[in-house]
Amino acid sequence: MTKDINVKVLQPYSFYESLKNDKDLTEWINELNKIYYQSYRAEEYLKKFGAQLVRNYTELLKGYKDISPTNRCIYLNCWTNLEINRHKSEKGINDFDSKVENFVEEVWEILKNKKGKHCNRDKSLFTKEHVNIRKDLLDFCTNRDILRKSNGVYSYGKLNEWISKMYKKYIDDNYCKTYEDILDIYDENDSPLKIADNCTLYDIHATFPYFGVRHIISFWEHRIRSISNCKKHGNAGFYVPPDPEVLDSDDVSSSPILIKITITAFTIVSIFSFGLILYKFSPFGFWLHKNIINKYKIGVDNEEEKNILSKETLYLNFLNSGKSDHHISYHPV
């Protein structure tokens, strides 16, 4: 029996919990003071924040190998941005370019130069809510990639059940209403809803795969290819599918009508191709050509001869009938 999926036992959960840990920071405050002399004059909450950043950058980024280095860096940026938002909110700081941001940018740059790690600072201007949405999507994609490599620990059925559950979490709950402001504010490549080409709500199929050889995909479950298509569906509820004629071709993964047409056309082409091959290269084709088709040709030729003879006979009759109408005669005077 394969296991049920519990994401709390996977590394993304424990890694982020370690990033948030603010205990036993004395060693890291001393390290901060060594690399950044201005920290002596910083306020206490900034020192603590800076110490966490030093620890997270120098120690935690090196571990948790189940998570790709790229995703570890994104996690660190998500944590940093959420902490900046928290401290500014608690201190009543409304400035866009505040001392909190300046402190973080300076410490981060020193860490990059001194420690030789390659984790760039993400300065995207996401709100707290949008950072949380981005981090949540990152959790899913990182867990998905780990589960993909689980080597039989989880059955395809369990994996597909989990993928389907997560798909419904992101797409179904409020039928895209959560993302309306994001779609209005950001372009796709700058959006918190896109982390990578295979981790983006702008490409549903790439982000929510099905495991196993046979891909049994519900038509309505994958009816939108991109979160940007939410606007096309308006306020339609998930459990009441819109009329098929309303949907654009870009919104539908696979239409039953289109599938039937494709199958029918493919069947006709296959039968024609098979018949052509059979006629050209098989003994049956040779026999068919020799006996039936040749007989047909002979029959056609005979019929044509009959038609020609018939026409010639009619022509001679016509000439003869013409001659009988003209007589040379004389009358005695």
What can you see in these coordinates?
The protein is mainly α and 333 residues long. The chain has 2 domains: 249 residues, no CATH class; 63 residues. It is 58% helix and 2% strand. The chain contains 12 helices and 2 strands. The protein has a two-stranded antiparallel sheet with strand order 1-2. It is elongated.
Question: Which features characterize this protein?
Answer:
mainly alpha; transmembrane helix; membrane; two-stranded antiparallel ribbon; transmembrane; 2 domains; Plasmodium_Vir; PIR Superfamily Protein; single chain; disordered C terminus; 333 residues; elongated
- Rg over CA atoms, rounded to whole Å, is 39 Å
Q: Oligomeric state of the chains?
A: single chain
- Helix coverage percent of residues? 55-70%
Unreliable stretches covering 5 or more consecutive residues: 235-258, 318-333
Q: Taking strands numbered 1, 2, ... along the chain, how are they ordered across the largest sheet?
A: 1-2
Number of domains: 2
Structural class: mainly alpha
Distance between the termini: 133 Å
Determine the mean pLDDT: 77
| Gross morphology | elongated
Total beta strands:
2
Continuous helix count: 12
Secondary-structure element sequence? Answer: HHHHHHHHEEHHHH
Main sheet properties: 2 strands, antiparallel
Beta-strand fraction estimate: under 5%
Concise overview:
With 333 residues, the chain is an all-alpha fold.
